[in-house]
Amino acid sequence: MDLQDRINAFVKLGEFLSQFQDINSVKKDTVEANDLFFDGFKHQLKLAQEHNGWFTKANIAFTLKNWAQALTQDNLKQWLINYDFKSVNPQKVAIIMAGNIPLVGFHDFLSVLITGHQVLVKQSSNDKQLLPFLAKYLEIVAPEFKGNITFTEAKLENFDAVIATGSDNTARYFEYYFKDKPSIIRKNRNSVAVINGTETQEELEALADDIFRYYGLGCRNVSKLFVPKDYDFQYFFKAVYKWNPIINESKYANNYDYNKAVYLMSEFDMLENGFLMIKEDQSYASPIATLFYEYYEDRNTLQEKLKADADKIQCVVSRSFTENIVDFGETQNPQLWDYADGEDTIEFLLKI
Q1: 196 and 166 in one domain?
Q2: Within this chain, do residues 164 and 201 fall inside the same structural domain, yes or no?
Q3: CA–CA separation, 244 vs 166, rounded Å?
Q4: Is the same domain home to 206 and 254?
Q5: 199-219 pLDDT per residue, tens
Q6: 3-class SS at 135?
C-alpha cells in the first residue's frame, strides 16, 4: 500500500463512523461494507457500555463524532503533508493502550498504520470492545492491511518499537522493560485553565465542557483552575450549572458522595454546588467530581510555574495567556496534529 491507499482506507473508516456520531445511529447506503458491519458495530457499542459504566452512549458518540470529522481526505493530507514517507522501513510497533476514555489509543493505532508499519496492540481491559471491530472493517475495505494488525492479551514479543501509555508508576516499568527499544513512554498528565476574571458567560460554559466531558477522566480534561486573588466563584458556578444532570449518573454520584465525605471528615475547606466540589490545592490531578484551584497574583510568575511543570500538563486553557493555549471548550476536540505530551508520533515512527 502506498500512503494514498492508506489514507483512503481511513477515510472510509471515517465515513463508517459518521453513522454513529449521534446517540441514535443512522445507517447510510453509501458506506462501503455497511451491510457486513453496521449492526455488528451497534452491538459492540452496547457491549462497551455494559462493560464500562464510564462509557456512556453520549460519551462514545462524542468520541466517534470527533474521529468521523478527523478522518477526511483534507484533514489527513493536511496532517501528513510535511512529512517524508519515502524511506520508511516497515517495522512492527507495539502499542500499550490506556482505557480511561473510549478509543483513547486510536491516534497511536492510526499513526502506526498510516506510516506503513505493522501494529501489535495490547489494549486496556476497560476499552477492548471497539478497536478490534474497527480493525476488521479496515481489513475488509483495504485487504492489504491483513497481517499488519495484531491484538494480544499475552506478553508483548517480537516487536521493534513501542508506544506505551500508563501511570507514572507503570511508566517506570515501561522505561526499564523497553530500554533497548525505540519508544514513546507517556505518563500521568492533567490539563489546567488560567482564569483572569474577565471571561464571558459563554467562555465559562465552554470551560465546563472541558471539565465534565468523559467525567473528567481524560488527560485533556481540565482538573485545575488558576484564578486571580479574590476571584468570585459565583460566576463560575453559574456557568457550569448546565452540567448538573451529571449527578444523576450513579458512578459519578458515588464518587461525589465519597470525596465529599472525605473532605468533610478531614475538615478541608471547599466549595460545592451539589454536583461539583472545588478545593484549593497545589496538585494537578483532582479526584472525580472535584476541581482543584490555586490563586495567582503575577502573570509572569504563573507562566514560569507552568513552564517548569510542563511535564505534568497536557493542555493549558485560557484566553491568550501563553503560547500553545487551547481555547475554552476545545480540549476534547484535538486535531490530528495535536500530539499527546507534545511528542510528534509520526516523526518518531518515520525514524525507527
Answers
A1: no
A2: no
A3: 30
A4: yes
A5: 999 999 999 999 999 999 999
A6: helix
Q: Indicate the residue among 164, 188, 212 that finishes a domain.
A: 188
Dump the DSSP string for 46-105: HHHHHH-TT--HHHHHHHHHHHHHHSSHHHHHHHHTTS--TT----EEEEE---SSTTTT
Domain-located, residue 240: yes
**Domain ranges, residue 164:** 3-188
Same domain, 33 and 51: yes
Hey, which residues does 92 pair with through a beta bridge? 118
120 in Cβ contact with 159 (< 8 Å): yes
Can you tell me which residue has the cell 496492540? 121
Compute the distance between CA of residue 192 and CA of residue 317 in angstroms, rounded to an integer. Answer: 6
Give the predicted TM-score (pTM) of the model. Answer: 0.95
Q: Are residues 39 and 121 in the same domain?
A: yes
Half-sphere exposure in the Cβ direction for 343 (13 Å, CA)? 18
Query: Which cell numbers hold the place of 88?
Result: 520508511
Q: What is the pLDDT of residues 159-186, one digit of tens each?
A: 999 999 999 999 999 999 999 999 999 9
Residue 283, in any domain of the structure: yes
Sequential DSSP letters for 324-350: T-B-TT-TTS--TT--GGG--HHHHHH
Which phi and psi angles does 188 have, rounded to 5°? -65, 135
Q: Is residue 17 domain-resident?
A: yes
Q: Which residues contact 327 (CB under 8 A, 6 or more apart)?
A: 206, 317
Q: Which residues of 246-285 are buried (b: 16+ CB within 10 A; e: fewer)?
A: bbeeeebeebbeebeeebeeeeeebebbebbbbbebeebe
Examine the pLDDT at 56 and tell me if it is beyond 90.
yes
Residues 180, 204: one domain? Answer: no
List phi, psi (to 5°) of 185: -115, 120
Share of the chain above pLDDT 90, in %: 96
